[in-house]
Write a structure and sequence with these properties.
Blueprint (H helix, E strand, L loop, with lengths): L18 E4 L1 H5 L7 H14 L5 E7 L2 E6 H7 L12 H14 L3 E3 L4 H8 L5 E4 L7 H11 L2 E6 L3 H4 L8 H15 L2 E4 L2 H11 L4 E4 L24 E5 L8 H11 L5 E5 L7 H8 L7 E4 L4 H9 L3 E4 L8 H8 L4 E3 L3 H7 L4 E2 L5 H13 L15 H8 L4
Parallel strand pairs: 1-2, 1-5, 5-6, 6-7, 7-8, 9-10, 9-12, 10-11, 12-13, 13-14
Antiparallel strand pairs: 2-3, 3-4
Length: 400
């Protein structure tokens, strides 16, 4: 599927002589619960491993660059998926990096990157980066110069540029510079939604060809036995998924729950603590043990799926999204959603959710009460065709 403004003038339907997938972000996240961007990079790894074209991976490590061939990527892939909850994340990360170094086709310090790529990869290789990591001038310039590579980048959002006040200190200039480099050097930009494509246009420009390819929807197998003690709650409950940071707007839900008082259903906030949210952290820390709000982090995909599956609904009062994978996955699981009035939710989810502006706390409170009091069998929203990875890669693979 192509979004408005798609340009395909310099791309072809011929497969590249090889693909070079950047796995820098994913290996840095090894051992940790995967975020949405991490899971997209993992989906690309799995999809590319299923394709016949020669395949390689590039990793930027502390000591330089690591190049893997298909066999090395296949050996590394299991270490980049679901974390082992029995071992510390940092230990798993170090093991994954050691494995990558052990099975590497080549390892070089930064100044020798071009030599390594020319030695092992054919001219015209497609360099693909879907993780917003390692998009340095050195990598992009070297891929172009050493390989005459077609550079393909997936842009997930430009939220740091639209909402700089919600970002970690010091991260916005680096993100802005990365987006500028992509606009100047990429041959093809993949957008996860037409909304992201439209929002990014003012920052990226129109030099590169672009397509819109919705991200795939996956529903993890629920594993209720892996939930921690006390979950799921015995009474009706709602789940809010995501890192506890300003963009996700947890403060709004805490206000709603304060309004509902002692008879409120349970709210389970499922996510790790992020940044610039000290007031919210303080409110959570002050909650008594029997409060109707619970905080949990580090859930596996299976545990989170079990928690969501039994809930009365999933809540997304977020101020901004590029795509919203947790919302599409909750919809695919047949769980009711209440979401903020965002264009991207309308684009991807259509009529599935209950839409409620975060300027209307009264409406949120009433809709939450209605879902909490509904019979479980009547809570399920109507069926809706959600995006698939098959459709995504049918669009992407013929151009990359």
């Amino acid at each position: 599927m192509h979004g408005d403004g798609t340009k395909l003038g310099t791309t072809t339907n011929n497969p590249p002589p090889a693909r070079l997938l950047d796995l820098t972000r994913l290996i840095r996240r090894a051992g940790r619960v995967l975020t949405g961007v991490d899971r997209v990079e993992l989906a690309y790894l799995r999809a590319f491993l299923d394709q016949p074209e020669p395949l390689f991976a590039l990793i930027r490590s502390r000591y330089g660059y690591i190049l893997l061939n298909r066999d090395g990527m296949a050996k590394l892939a299991p270490w980049l998926a679901e974390p082992d909850t029995g071992n510390p994340p940092d230990q798993q990360n170090r093991r994954a990096l050691r494995l990558a170094r052990r099975v590497a086709l080549g390892r070089v310090p930064p100044p020798l990157l071009a030599r390594m790529l020319r030695r092992h990869l054919p001219q015209g290789t497609a360099y693909v980066n879907v993780g917003h990591s390692n998009l340095s001038h050195r990598v992009l310039r070297t891929a172009q110069g050493a390989l005459k590579a077609q550079i393909t980048v997936l842009i997930h959002d430009v939220i740091p540029l639209e909402h700089p006040e919600m970002q970690r200190a010091g991260t916005v200039p680096a993100f802005a510079a990365m987006i500028e480099r992509v606009g100047q050097m990429a041959d093809l930009i993949i957008y996860n939604s037409a909304d992201t494509q439209a929002r990014a246009a003012r920052y990226v420009g129109t030099r590169a060809n672009s397509i819109v390819a919705y991200l795939g929807t996956e529903v993890a197998t629920p594993l209720p036995d892996t939930l921690p003690t006390g979950l799921p709650p015995a009474r009706p409950y709602f789940v809010c998924i995501g890192t506890i940071e300003p963009r996700k707007n947890h403060a709004f839900l805490l206000d709603v729950w304060d309004d509902m008082g002692a008879h409120a259903p349970t709210l389970v906030i499922a996510g790790s603590r992020g940044w610039k949210n000290e007031d919210v952290f303080a409110r959570l820390d002050r909650l008594p043990p029997d409060a109707p709000v619970q905080e949990v982090s580090g859930l596996s995909d299976g545990a989170l799926a079990a928690l969501v599956q039994r809930s009365a609904g999933v809540l997304f009062p977020t101020h901004a999204e590029g795509f919203g994978l947790p919302a599409t996955e909750a919809a695919a699981a047949g769980v009711p959603l209440i979401v903020n009035e965002l264009a991207v939710f309308r684009e991807i989810l259509g009529k599935i959710p209950i839409y409620a502006s975060v300027s209307d706390r009264y409406l949120w409170k009433n809709k939450i009460k209605e879902l909490a009091e509904a019979e479980p069998d009547t809570r399920r929203p109507q069926h809706h065709q959600l995006p698939t990875w098959d459709a995504h890669f049918k669009t992407v693979l013929r151009l990359t």
